């Protein structure tokens, strides 16, 4: 059975904005994105919202619902009481373009700073071999749909915009971890050092493993346990390795 819900939606642009109240029809089985689309169709045709797949796979419809970072298309209306106010606001960590649409270019800039996978030297494509456990580790990280909800949630940048220069956020530290743990990556052989990069360029030290990023990931990737903590352990291993310490002092 349908009912009328109370929606409070943020409307505005980079200059100014405010929460506006609406009564909108809700039908059985609908998600928040359906209701936002109905609002567009019936009351505010110029309401800006980004979406593509409506299936939790493109990562476009990220926003905050009642203060919690979520995908609009994967949040069922049935999780709210019929008399509950549903407040929809844009992601807080990124600049607003208009209404629910934010400028997420920070994430693409950080992605570009990560050296890509270096294929193994001396092995032809088709001859690469990996243990199943290493394949599965990469596959978990590759489920990422780049919704940036983890980036939006991480307090290091959510509460301190200035940290964005020095901290790439969980999604991209996870990418560095994936490559650092990849048994076939030969970046190190070409003089690169992903551990050093994680610490010095991507701000791994800012992460205090609160796991908030993991809690909001719609793909249920264990970002903190499987990527960030192992990466920190590798950096610490390197730091306390007496042979590496000796080598580094000689280089200095
Ligand atoms: S675990 Fe680290 S990256 Fe994730 S939210 Fe906490 S501080 Fe940010
Ligand atoms: S790791 Fe999860 S929360 Fe972060 S961008 Fe990827 S899918 Fe989204
Ligand atoms: S519209 Fe693609 S994830 Fe929501």
TrEMBL record:
Cofactor(s) needed: [2Fe-2S] cluster; [3Fe-4S] cluster; [4Fe-4S] cluster
Entry keyword annotation includes Protein transport: no
A Gene Ontology term for the protein's cellular component: plasma membrane
Annotated pathway: Carbohydrate metabolism; tricarboxylic acid cycle
Iron listed as a keyword: yes
Record's keyword terms, sorted: 2Fe-2S, 4Fe-4S, Iron, Iron-sulfur, Metal-binding, Oxidoreductase
GO annotation terms (biological process): respiratory electron transport chain; tricarboxylic acid cycle
Residues covered by the 2Fe-2S ferredoxin-type domain: 5-92
InterPro entries on file: 2Fe-2S_ferredoxin-like_sf, 2Fe-2S_ferredoxin-type, 2Fe2S_fd_BS, 4Fe4S_Fe-S-bd, Beta-grasp_dom_sf, Helical_ferredxn, SDH/FRD_Iron-Sulfur, Succ_DH/fum_Rdtase_Fe-S
GO terms for MF: 2 iron, 2 sulfur cluster binding; 4 iron, 4 sulfur cluster binding; electron transfer activity; metal ion binding; oxidoreductase activity
Gene3D superfamilies, per database record: 3.10.20.30, Alpha-helical ferredoxin (1.10.1060.10)
PANTHER family linked: SUCCINATE DEHYDROGENASE [UBIQUINONE] IRON-SULFUR SUBUNIT, MITOCHONDRIAL, SUCCINATE DEHYDROGENASE IRON-SULFUR PROTEIN
Family: Belongs to the succinate dehydrogenase/fumarate reductase iron-sulfur protein family.
Protein name: Succinate dehydrogenase / fumarate reductase iron-sulfur subunit
Organism: Streptoalloteichus hindustanus
């Amino acid at each position: 059975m349908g009912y009328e819900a109370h929606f409070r939606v943020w409307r505005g642009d980079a200059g100014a904005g405010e929460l506006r109240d609406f009564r909108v029809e809700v039908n059985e089985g609908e998600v928040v994105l359906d209701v936002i689309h109905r609002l567009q169709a019936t009351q505010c045709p110029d309401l800006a919202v980004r979406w593509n797949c409506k299936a939790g796979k493109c990562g476009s419809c990220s926003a905050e619902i009642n203060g919690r970072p979520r995908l609009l298309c994967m949040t069922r209306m049935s999780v709210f009481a019929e008399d509950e106010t549903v407040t929809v606001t844009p992601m807080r960590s990124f600049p607003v373009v208009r209404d629910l649409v934010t400028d997420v270019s920070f994430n693409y800039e950080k992605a570009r700073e990560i050296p890509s996978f270096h294929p193994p030297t001396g092995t032809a494509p088709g001859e690469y071999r990996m243990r199943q456990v290493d394949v599965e580790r990469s596959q978990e990280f590759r489920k990422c749909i780049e919704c940036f909800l983890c980036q939006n949630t991480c307090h290091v940048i959510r509460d301190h915009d200035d940290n964005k220069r020095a901290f790439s956020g969980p999604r991209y530290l996870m990418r560095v971890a994936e490559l650092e743990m990849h048994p076939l990556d030969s970046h190190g052989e070409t003089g690169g050092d992903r551990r050093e990069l994680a610490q010095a360029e991507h701000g791994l030290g800012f992460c205090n493993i609160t796991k908030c990023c993991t809690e909001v990931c719609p793909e249920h990737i264990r970002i903190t346990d499987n990527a960030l903590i192992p990466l920190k352990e590798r950096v610490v291993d390197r730091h306390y390795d007496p042979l590496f310490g000796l080598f580094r002092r000689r280089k200095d």
